[in-house]
Q: What sequence folds into this?
């Protein structure tokens, strides 16, 4: 029996959910997804599936557009469980608050720092998941001791504030709500970083997507409650369906655009996040189907380390190590086949690094 299974207090569904999300994130750094949509595969089922692992260019929603919301939601789910454990060990609320501010600052600095590595100069950009999470984490903590109604109301207020700013921002040149580089988000990018984002990602996304982390907190509090498994699953499922109905139902009025986190995107992606948690909880913690859970879970036990390692060139290093051996053994499959196999090898090298850390009981946290 694994160390995780021996700890009956762990929510294995959350461990799996986080681990699967992180596994998919590092899969992107292995370049596997880019080869699944190669021109040679166009028209095939592989190409169709592969398209779901790329962001929509502007309006719409692919599976890959859900990964960051999933991660931010998962952090929220873990917050009440983590803080409860800290306070059981004797930490005061004041000490927990200091930890939250310290962690948020470190996340912000790490997220910002990743943008400074490539160009070799200081650049004030905060669009990546770490920097965005620094903001959503604090906002979720700010209201997590309030009632569920207050938390929901606060999250909806953040979404409506964002909607209003995009629709009614008065500055000429940036008053076209849902047009790339001509909206409030583009203006805010210029204000903070002095430049537009080449992919149209908005720094301001951290405000409306704080709803994902807040909803995660509510889900975590629900799972910690004395309610029956049936009641928990029903609540998660109903909340998820409501999110989908609002998100997709109003998409003709406000288009679903991840790159500027429109209100419909936040609701739709939040709905999918809730339903994914409900599914994981039902299968793993209620039905006790736990075979294979550890494979993904170990990736989620060192999420910050593996994300940073892959992001700063670790995946490229592993690729260069594996390349000559992969070409020797699998060159006969052709250029595309060899690249797909190499990317798969790199992905599992990244996985094995997480496994090695797990076996050595090394868990890097802030």
A:
């Amino acid at each position: 029996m694994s160390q995780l299974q021996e700890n009956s207090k762990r929510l294995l569904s959350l461990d799996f959910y986080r681990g699967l999300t992180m596994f998919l994130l590092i899969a992107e750094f292995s370049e596997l997804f880019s080869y699944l949509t190669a021109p040679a595969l166009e028209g095939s089922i592989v190409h169709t599936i592969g398209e779901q692992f790329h962001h929509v260019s502007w309006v719409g929603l692919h599976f890959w557009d859900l990964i960051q919301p999933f991660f931010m939601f998962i952090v929220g789910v873990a917050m009440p469980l983590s803080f409860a454990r800290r306070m059981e060990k004797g930490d005061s609320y004041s000490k927990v608050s200091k930890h939250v501010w310290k962690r948020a600052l470190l996340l912000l600095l790490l997220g910002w720092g990743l943008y400074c590595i490539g160009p070799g100069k200081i650049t004030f950009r905060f669009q990546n998941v770490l920097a965005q999470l620094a903001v959503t984490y604090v906002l979720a903590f700010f209201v997590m001791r309030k009632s569920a109604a207050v938390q929901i109301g606060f999250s909806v207020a953040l979404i409506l504030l964002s909607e209003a700013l995009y629709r009614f921002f008065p500055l000429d040149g940036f008053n076209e709500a849902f047009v790339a580089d001509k909206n409030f988000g583009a203006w805010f990018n210029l204000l903070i970083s002095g430049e537009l984002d080449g992919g149209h990602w908005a720094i301001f996304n951290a405000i409306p997507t704080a709803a994902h982390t807040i909803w995660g907190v509510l889900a975590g509090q629900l799972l910690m409650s004395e309610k029956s498994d049936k009641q928990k699953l029903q609540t998660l499922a109903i909340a998820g369906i409501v999110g989908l109905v609002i998100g997709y139902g109003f998409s003709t009025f406000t288009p679903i655009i991840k790159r500027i986190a429109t209100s419909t995107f936040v609701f739709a992606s939040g709905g999918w996040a809730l339903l994914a948690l409900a599914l994981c909880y039902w299968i793993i913690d209620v039905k006790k189907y736990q075979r294979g859970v550890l494979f993904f879970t170990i990736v989620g036990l060192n999420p910050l380390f593996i994300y940073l390692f892959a992001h700063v060139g670790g995946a490229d290093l592993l690729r260069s190590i594996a390349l000559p051996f992969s070409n020797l053994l699998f060159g006969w499959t052709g250029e595309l086949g060899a690249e797909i196999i190499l990317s798969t090898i790199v992905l599992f090298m990244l996985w094995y690094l997480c496994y090695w850390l797990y076996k050595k009981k090394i868990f890097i946290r802030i």
Q: What stands out?
A: DSSP finds 15 helices and no strands in the chain. Residues 240 and 274 are 5 Å apart (CA to CA). Residues 3-301 form one domain.
